[in-house]
Specification:
WD40/YVTN_repeat-like_dom_sf, mainly beta, 425 residues, five-stranded antiparallel beta sheet, 6-phosphogluconolactonase activity, 44% strand, carbohydrate metabolism, 30 strands
């Protein structure tokens, strides 16, 4: 494991408390951080970003404002590997313990040349004014970490490594820093399909795309992990693999961080499983299929980790013709609706869930007001939805949330190759 630390910097001063004294926690301002693609080597990235952008959030209007007296964006320059100074800090995750002001950033690169053989994860301290300061960086053990998440208990961090088609588990210390004594553990997706052989899906246009005369083609040449996240119970870790057209559920060991006993379920061949969300009941799972522009609905057994495919539903309007790539999914505060982003159609598809069965149905679409929407995030209050546009979009747009209705606020925030936004108090 490579570990790069900022010398002489401490984020967690010791605090002594008097017995029986109650110290109210001051309300911290709300901050937003936007990851970007800084390397244009891949055409879908855009590659004009300048690092992780830092904003203060107006809680009344949802507006994002640049931090005063702080750089526009934070980007760690790894002097030990200058070839990777711009490393696509595109995917972000905050430590779940709000008392630990630590932000993790996945640096999405292949490591095909130079001294490194894998992508990496960086940790930043979030200062009282919201400004980021680099803490450390570790190898994740896989190539192109396209997604990062932290287990709800905060002891382990996961990366979905797209190019190498595997999942990494990185141990964290109690203070949120990387545990430098425990290297990343890597789990290849191709070994996780049980009795059913894991083979790449066909690299052809999926039937769902043919139904709208699209030409979606992508990476069915082998395994390509796209998202990793624990289930609501924290007992399992789920992974979507676009190349294998599968969702994989690992049993998670809280003590060791080990992943074991994987089970998997398939989406329609060539559909390209990308991102997912759970319903609050922990039993309904919704998977965005990038290539087919559909949502696959699964039931999930939180006791065994068993996934059962139920249905797939288009994210595009009836009568649409052409190519589009679904990207991200977000549950709305009501818990009875979710939204899905469509790239090229540049829309937010709004879905309603059947209260008894969980089956989704599309109610309509809202224009994203940008190009190639990659991800969307709700603010902590659930009042505003933020949409990041990469490639030629280069902005973040803001929508007010009214039940299942979205209303554009008129706010555009310029961010080159915006990939993902997270909030922190």
């Amino acid at each position: 494991m490579q570990l790069v630390a900022l010398k002489g910097f401490s984020t967690y001063p010791s605090v002594s408390c008097m017995p029986n004294a109650i110290s109210p926690t001051p309300t911290r301002p709300l901050f937003a951080y936007v990851g970007t693609y800084t390397d244009g080597g891949k055409p879908w990235r855009g590659g004009v970003g300048s690092g992780v952008h830092q904003f203060a959030v107006d809680p009344d209007t949802g507006a994002l404002q640049r931090l005063p007296n702080a750089p526009v964006a934070a980007l760690h320059d790894n002097s030990n590997a200058p070839a990777y100074a711009d490393r696509n800090p595109a995917t972000l995750a905050r430590h779940p313990n709000t008392a630990l002001a630590v932000l993790y950033v996945a640096n999405e690169f292949d490591g095909l040349t130079g001294p490194n053989t894998s992508g990496s994860v960086s940790a930043y301290a979030m200062g009282p004014n919201g400004a980021l300061q680099f803490l450390a960086e570790v190898d994740c053990g896989g190539k192109n970490p396209a997604y990062i998440s932290v287990h709800p208990e905060g002891r382990y961090l996961f990366t979905a490594n797209y190019v190498s088609g595997d999942v990494s588990v990185i141990a964290l210390r109690a203070d949120g820093h990387f545990d430098s004594h425990r290297p990343a553990r890597v789990y290849p997706n191709a070994l996780c399909c049980g009795a059913t052989p894991c083979a790449p899906g066909a690299n052809v246009v999926p039937q769902a795309a043919l139904d709208h005369e699209g030409f979606a083609l992508s990476d069915h040449d082998g395994p390509h992990a796209h998202m990793v996240q624990a289930d609501p119970s924290g007992n399992f870790v789920l992974v979507t693999d676009l190349g294998l057209d599968r969702v994989i559920a690992y049993r998670f060991d809280r003590d060791t961080g080990a992943l074991s006993a994987p089970t998997s379920a398939c989406v329609t061949e060539s559909s390209g499983a990308r991102h997912f969300i759970f319903h609050a009941n922990g039993r309904w799972l919704y998977v965005v299929n990038e290539e087919a522009s559909t949502v696959a609905f699964f039931t999930f057994d939180p006791g065994t980790g068993q996934l059962t495919w139920v249905s797939e539903t288009s994210t595009l309007p009836a009568g649409f013709k052409g190519t589009s790539f679904a990207s991200n999914i977000q549950m709305l505060p009501s818990g009875s609706h979710f939204v899905v982003l469509n790239r090229l159609h540049d829309s937010i598809a709004i879905f309603e869930l059947d209260a008894s069965t969980g089956a989704p149905s599309c109610l309509g679409e809202e224009w994203t007001r940008g190009s190639f929407p990659r991800s969307c995030t709700l603010d902590p209050s659930g009042r505003y939805l933020y949409v990041c546009h990469n490639k030629q979009g280069d902005n973040v747009t803001v929508f007010a949330v009214d039940g299942h209705r979205l209303h554009f606020t008129g706010q555009y925030i310029a961010v080159g190759s915006a990939s993902m936004l997270v909030f922190s108090h």
